[in-house]
DNA sequence: GTGAAAGCGCTAACAA
DNA sequence: TTGTTAGCGCTTTCAC
C-alpha cells in the first residue's frame, strides 16, 4: 500500500501551514500566486491527494453520487441502463464525483436503500432511472431534502417539482411514423404498453400525432401488452390478423419489435424461434439496443450519454451552486436509426 | 436531509458510554447480553447507522470495492460486464460493501485511476475484468500490496500470484463441439481471435480437444479475426468457401457467431444486413448475450452471478481474515444453452 | 464489563 | 495573506 501523504507532509515540505495548503487547493484565489505555485508543485511532487473521508467529515460532502444498477430484465432493454450508467460515471469523474452502485427491487426496497446509503456513505445525491406515476422514490427523497435528478420526467407532477432529464419519446415515435409514411405506408399500427405508464403513453402519443397530421385515425390500429418478446409477438399477430391492410408497425421497445419481427417477416427465418410465415411488414423499435443493431431493426435512439451528462450538470449546479433555485429540467430529442427492417 | 444520529445519541438514549455502543455493534462478545440488547434496541429505534467516513478515518477501511464499468464495445459482448457488475453489487451489499465505479481506457489509464481512487476514496479492494497477457494492472496493484481479485485467470503467471475467478472457456467450446458432433456434424470449424490472447487460445483449445477426442484434426478448419460482427462474417465466408464440407462453426463470441450467421443461413433472411445466400451451417456462439437469445443462437453461458459472488468471497476472505494466506483461485464450469442455430 | 481520552485528516472560523 | 484552534464521528488504548 502506498504510504499515505497528508496535508501536513505537504505543508512541511512547502514551508507553509496546513491551512495554506488547503486554501491553495480549495480556495486558490485567497492565496498569493507564488505561494500557491510552490504548494501545488509540492503536491505534484509528493503525489498528494485529499482524503475524501477526512474532507467529508469536515464538509459533510462525500462527492459520491448513488445510482441503481438494474438486473437485466429481458436483457434487451437492460442495455439502456448500462449505457446510461457508463455515461454517468465518465461525466461524474470529470466533475470530481464518483458513482456508488446499489441494487433494489421495487420502489420500497429502493427507498430503504436510500436510507441505508444516506446513513452510512452519505452520497451527495441520487440519480434515479425510470420514473413512473406515483413514484414513491421521488417523494421520499424530496421530503428529506436529499438532492436528486431523474432520468425520466416527473410524471406524477408535471409542474416539475424536481430536477429531471428525459428524452422526448413522442417525438421519437412521431419521427418513426413519419419515416414510414414517407416510405409509402398508409396503415401503420402501434405496439405498446398498457395505458397508465407515462413513458408508454408518451410513445403512443407520438405515433397518433403523426397519423393525425396526415388525416389518419388510429382506431383498431394499436395493441397494448407486457414489454417482452413473446407478448409482442402475440400482440403483433393479433393486430396483423385482424387488419390485413397494416403494412408497418411502430413499437414502444426493441423487445416488442423483436416479437413483431417474428411474425412480420415472410418467410420467417426458420431459426428465429417461433417464427411463422406472414406477410412482410415494416417494423420500427425503440432504444436502438445491441439487438436492434444485430438484427437490422430500425429503431429510435436515445442520446444516453447526453442524458447522463445533463443529469450530472443539473446535479452539480444544484450541489455546488444554488440549492434554492427552482428545479431545472430538460427534454432531449431522440434520433431515428434506419436499418433494413423499415 | 434526515438529521444525523450519532453514536453519542445512542449512548445517551441507552444510558451507556459511546464506547459501549461501539462495542455492542462491532465486538458484541465483549458486552454483557443485557446491555447489548438495550443498545441494539435503541439503535433500531433511532435508526442509527455507523458513519462510514468516521469509521474509515479510524480504521482505514472504507468498505468500498472499486470496479470498472466498460464502455459497451460492440454492444453485444458488453452485456457480460454489466451482468457481472450487477452480481457484484448485490453480493457486495450483502457483505456490507459497496461498489464504486470508475472508467478507464487501457491498462495505463486504469492504473492511473487506481492511483486516484486510492488517494481519495481509499477503496479496500479492486475487482478487475478481462485479464490478459502482460497485464500491467495486476502488477501495479501487487507491487503496492493493494488487495484485488480478477475475473479472468492470471494468464501471464499461471502459478497464480493473485486471487482470481474464471470460467473454463475450453470446457465451454469443448461442450459446444461435442454437442455438434452428437448432432452428426463431422467437419466443424472454429472462428476465434488472433493467437496470443489467453481467453481466445483457451476457447480454441476446447474445440480442438473435442475433435481430437474423436480422432479428427483441425487443419484448415479455423480462422482468427477481430472480435466483431463484420470480421466474423468475412472469416466465416472465407472458411466456408474454402472448405465445402464444413457443416458447423464454433465461435469464440456471440459477435463472431452473429457474423457467421449472416453467411451460414440459406437463404439468408433479407433483413439481416449483408446476408448472402449460402448453405445451411450450424453455429454456436459464446457468452449467451441478449443478442443470442433474440436470434435463437446456441451459445455457451458463463455463470456470471456465481463468478461475481465468488470474486467477492475471495476478497472478503482476504480482507477480513488472512491477508497473508496464499492467493486462492477458482475455475467455474460454463453451460451450453441450445437454441435453433445449432 | 464499562468509561475516558486521544486522534485519524481535513477545513470553517477566527486571530495574527 | 498566513497561521492557530477546534472538532466532524468513530474506534483503539488503557484505566477503572
Q: Mean pLDDT of chain A, as a whole number? A: 91
* CATH architecture title of the largest domain in chain A: 3-Layer(aba) Sandwich
* The CATH topology of the largest domain in chain A: Rossmann fold
SSE class of chain A: alpha/beta
Write structural notes for this entry.
Chains A, B: Keywords: DNA-binding, Transcription, Transcription regulation. Chains A, B: InterPro entries: HTH_LacI, Lambda_DNA-bd_dom_sf, Peripla_BP/Lac1_sug-bd_dom, Peripla_BP_I. Chains A, B: It comes from Herbidospora galbida. Chains A, B: Pfam families: LacI (PF00356), Peripla_BP_1 (PF00532). Chains A, B: This is LacI family transcriptional regulator. 2 copies of one chain form a homodimer. Chain A is of the alpha/beta class. Chain A folds into 3 domains: about 5-60, lambda repressor-like DNA-binding domains (434 Repressor (Amino-terminal Domain), Orthogonal Bundle); about 65-165 and about 305-330, Response regulator (Rossmann fold, 3-Layer(aba) Sandwich); about 170-300, Rossmann fold (3-Layer(aba) Sandwich), CATH 3.40.50. In chain A, about 45% of the residues lie in helices and about 15% in strands. The first copy, chain A, contains 13 helices and 12 strands. The first copy, chain A, has helices at about 5-15, 20-25, 35-45, 50-60, 80-95, 105-120, 135-145, 170-180, 200-215, 230-240, 255-265, 290-295, 305-320, and strands at about 65-70, 100, 125-130, 150, 165, 190, 220-225, 250, 280-285, 300, 330, 335. In chain A, the strands form 2 sheets. Chain A has a 6-stranded parallel sheet with strand order 2-1-3-4-5-11, sandwiched between helices. Chain A has a 6-stranded mixed sheet with strand order 7-6-8-9-10-12, with helices on both faces. In chain A, helix 5 links the parallel strand 1 and strand 2 (about 100). In chain A, helix 6 packs parallel to helix 7, helix 8 (about 170-180) packs parallel to helix 9 and helix 10 crosses helix 11 (about 255-265). The longest helix of chain A is centred in the N-terminal third of the chain and has 17 residues, at about 80-95. The first copy, chain A, is elongated and about 85 Å long. Chains A and B meet through helix 4, helix 5, strand 2, helix 6 and helix 12 of A and helix 4, helix 5, strand 2, helix 6 and helix 12 of B. Strand 2 (about 100) of chain A pairs antiparallel with strand 2 (about 100) of chain B, so a sheet runs across the interface. Chain A binds a DNA duplex (16 and 16 nucleotides) through helix 2 and helix 4.
